[in-house]
Design a protein that fits this description.
This protein is mainly β and 64 residues long. The chain contains one helix and five strands; from the N terminus they run αβββββ.
């Protein structure tokens, strides 16, 4: 296994994770390597396979 393979985010983790802002469900965006909260309109980065669930690190998602 290469270093990149070891650092992949495991989507099964979504069962245990919630948005720290609203306590709502998160969705995994594999392309952007983010966990998104539609309710809070925030996207949390995933770095080296680890979700960074800090509100200060989140990117605001514009409402449609």
């Amino acid at each position: 296994m290469t270093g990149a393979d070891e650092r992949k985010f495991d989507p099964k983790m979504l069962e245990a994770l919630v948005c720290p802002q609203c306590q709502g469900r998160l969705s995994y965006d594999a392309v952007a390597q983010e966990l998104t909260s539609k309710a809070a309109h925030l996207a949390y980065p995933i770095r080296a396979g680890i979700p960074v669930l800090l509100i200060d690190e989140a990117r605001v998602i514009l409402k449609d």
